[in-house]
Design brief:
eight-stranded mixed beta sheet; alpha/beta; 315 residues; 8 strands; 10 helices
Amino acid sequence: MKLSIPGRASTALAVAAATLLTGVAITGAAPAPVAAAAAPDLPVANVKAHLAQLQSIATANGGNRAHGRTGYKASLDYVKAKLDAAGFTTTVQQFTSSSRTGYNLIADWPGGNTNQVVMSGSHLDSVTAGPGINDNGSGSAAVLETALAVARTNYQPTKHLRFAWWGAEELGMVGSRYYVSNLSTANRSAISGYLNFDMIGSPNPGYFVYDDDATIEKTFKTYYTGLGIATEPETEGDGRSDHAPFKSAGIPVGGIFSGADYIKTAAQAAKWGGTSGKAFDACYHSSCDTSSNINDTALDRNADALAYAVWSLSS
């Protein structure tokens, strides 16, 4: 997640997925009443394996994966290779920011109605201070593992699935702004919803749901209700991550967040556990945002929430 600037156990949920079939399609009428495919339970070990790779890449490239640095391009190459091998159609979009070349990675899963696109994304860059494993390796790894689960299960949704990894978010959502600004009117209108995942494994986590679009918000809240977890509206990241350019373009947006440098209150600690009076992520934008800066339970729950939303909203 960029710096603040003005402007801003899933297997139990199969029944909820079927219930949502008649009510949460982002646009258009729901399909005929056939049981929806249940989202898979993403193995958190797989998500953590991607994080380990991103950590190794940062370690081998000056300690970070920032825009315009070798660690960012190596991160993108890692994600792209996984997607290409899984059968996705990948596109690398190039742009320039701060006199350095940046890259977005877009991956489309063949099939589905391309006039109704469910898009999920995360920023892949870190700040220069550290490897950025929670911010935002966590979101990037979970989006990648969800995409790979689509391929493993040969999921064939009604809507078209697109996944994205953004460059230069830490400089002001540069990559996602570039992508949105270069969409044709027709292609912009075809995106039924954009789901954003920026910091989902915070070590002192909260469970925050974007409240920008009621339908997408309801989808995530239904998932957490199934786990018995109370959520709160996400406000810390308003206007500070890659959903902002999509929202400005009139595209419905949503997402989840586990907290950055805001302080967890006593009431939130009572609700979610963890330590009150301490930041959700004390290593936010710091060199200590390493592989040890992840809460495995939060990462597991939130990665499964991601998959649940993708399956539910694309049925």
